[in-house]
Design a protein that fits this description.
173 residues; 4 helices; single chain; alpha+beta
């Protein structure tokens, strides 16, 4: 099922046939460099893919979605929205991961911009965050291009990270 579309991308629910392409990304240490849990095994990748087949199990409107290049049909990565409990508050993270062979082509920014609009207009979310590991300048760049700004440092079971945030509604004056 297609979740959203951009000029160059389709974001759709993952399917079991995405496993090999997703695993190729998840086992690559360079792609997973800034992920606090590092690379993933095939079994771990399968578990995550199964978890997100129909959206997030507790929030089906959210999830990680296969990110497909329209013109080639290539599986470029996975992007989407993830719910987190941060300091007792439900937050929704905008997450993106693109194949390193396609870095610097603007796919992460294009997907992120579409996800922000989807979150605002379809889901009615009021705020999005990005959890970015220190030193990940590329992800900071994407977050800033879509209007996010540094909010604060955060630490959880995976270690320290920076929270970038974007209000999706303008408070009434």
């Amino acid at each position: 099922m297609i979740v959203l579309e951009t000029p160059r991308l389709l974001l759709r629910h993952m399917v079991p046939d995405d496993l090999e392409a997703l695993y190729a990304l998840y086992r690559d240490p360079e792609i997973r460099r800034y992920f606090p849990d590092g690379t993933r095994t095939l079994a771990e990748t399968r578990d995550e893919l199964n978890w997100f087949l129909n959206g997030h199990p507790r929030h089906p409107e959210l999830g990680l979605w296969a990110t497909i290049e329209k013109c080639s049909g290539a599986f470029l990565g996975r992007c989407g929205l993830l719910p987190w409990d941060i300091d007792g508050r439900l937050e929704v993270e905008l997450a993106f991961l693109i194949d390193k062979t396609r870095w610097r082509e603007g796919f992460a920014t294009e997907a992120a911009q579409a996800i922000v609009e989807h979150a605002r207009t379809v889901l009615g979310l009021q705020r999005l965050i990005c959890l970015i590991t220190q030193g990940n300048a590329a992800s900071v760049g994407v977050a800033e291009k879509i209007g996010m700004s540094f909010e604060r440092q955060h630490e959880d079971e995976f270690g320290p990270c920076h929270i970038y945030a974007l209000a999706l509604v303008t408070p009434e004056s």
